[in-house]
Amino acid sequence: MVTENTFSEEVIMGSLHIKDMLIQFEGNDLSKYGLFPLFAWYLMDYVELPQRFKSLTVKRKRNNLNPVKRRSPQYTESQLAIGIVSIILLGIKRLRKINRVLKTESQVAQLIGLERFFDQATAHRFLNEFQLWHIRQLENVADELAKTFGEAFRQDIVVLDIDSTTHSLESRKRQKAVVGYNKKNPGKPCYQWSVGFIRGEAVAHKLYAGNTTCKNHLKDTLEMVTEKIPQPVSIVRLDGGYLSAELLNFIAEKNLSVVMGARYDWVMAQKPEIDPQKWISHDEKTQIYDLEMAKVTSTVERQYRIILVIKEQEPFPGLRRKKAKKVHYAIVENLPLRLDPVALYQFYCGRQTIENFFKQAKGPFNAGKMPSERFRACEAYLQFCIIAYNLFEWFKKNFSPRNGKAIRWRPFES
């Protein structure tokens, strides 16, 4: 790998940190961090991340009664925050691996304004000092970034996707780590993480104890998003795990427009009339049936528009199951406009963005590895993961080259 770049001795906002760069791969000289110089320019000179993290006051504790003169820390809050975001983007699975993996990567550290990467103890101490107020400061940084570089805050028609995932934990010593709904690891302590998405960007999130349910998460996430964005939420898309009589009553009370999944057997238990001739083939593996207005559950008298879906699902790579199976589910909606069954199915499938987010967050971004026993520290780490994910998505939309040739990037001088 050949790289040509020019660095300033000190990162000064308003001047270019990396003035010119050429990245070219030759033969087998591939590097794990090969394109990180380009992304470092994006973080430092385009997004100006050091300036935005200056609002954090994690390491500044007041003691007016008995003031103590403290020594100057080796790393500021801004440097530590940028370092953690970079560590997430570099794919370091756990903070305890910083010493072994990044100890000799001084050139990578200099790209983000550090002389060298801090050790794992410094990273853990920094996260453990986070309190609720510092979490709010970090959320404000994420919101300002989204307003400046994202699309979520600029939508005239706001389509909000909400979903939750489970984080299994190694022990019950972690704060609020209790046994709850944990499909993949029954009986293990866990956290529940709820995230709200608009236009493929994470705009709100909250971490819960393991024994909470996603139905409670919906109200909190909807309230957080409503407080942040200037426009009212037009449509909420949910998966079938949220469906309940309580939720349907909440939707009617708040006059919300929703598109959500539902269990096939719940709908069929209401004994609707099905004409086999009216099934529609969306593709070779998907059948759709428009049930029109019908009851979803026996405990709610209000009727909703329902379509039935039967989809042939191929086994995922690595599973023992080799044959495709048919998945049955329903889609429930109360939209003010009528969509034909195929268009409604495609619109509901648009929420797969948030499913991909959870897959990437627990994979390359390693959000499934909780770094601390303290609940606020885990909240802060997940917020850093969301900031890293959004930055990476904006970078791909605006700067990702379409071919594999060497491309010379010259940042804007203004």
Short account of what is shown:
It contains 13 helices and 13 strands. Helix 3 packs across helix 13 and helix 7 packs parallel to helix 13.
Topology of helices and strands:
Blueprint: E1 2-7, E2 18-24, H1 36-46, H2 49-52, H3 77-89, H4 98-102, H5 106-111, H6 120-128, H7 132-149, E3 158-168, E4 178-179, E5 189-198, E6 201-209, H8 214-228, E7 233-238, H9 245-254, E8 258-263, H10 264-268, E9 280-283, E10 286-295, E11 303-313, E12 325-333, H11 341-349, H12 352-362, H13 375-399, E13 407-409
Parallel strand pairs: 3-7, 7-8
Antiparallel strand pairs: 1-2, 2-13, 3-5, 4-5, 5-6, 8-12, 9-10, 10-11, 11-12
The overall average pLDDT, rounded, is: 80
In terms of DSSP E residues, the strand content is 15-25%
Kindly provide the radius of gyration, computed on alpha-carbon positions and rounded to a whole number of angstroms. Answer: 24 Å
Per DSSP E runs of 2 or more residues, the count of β-strands stands at 13
Order of helices and strands: EEHHHHHHHEEEEHEHEHEEEEHHHE
Alpha-beta content class: alpha+beta
Tally of helical runs: 13
Uncertain segments of ≥5 residues (pLDDT<50)? 1-14, 404-414
Q: Tell me, briefly, the overall form.
A: elongated
**Helicity range:** 25-40%
Distance between the termini: 30 Å
Described by strand count, sense and barrel closure, the largest sheet is: 10 strands, mixed
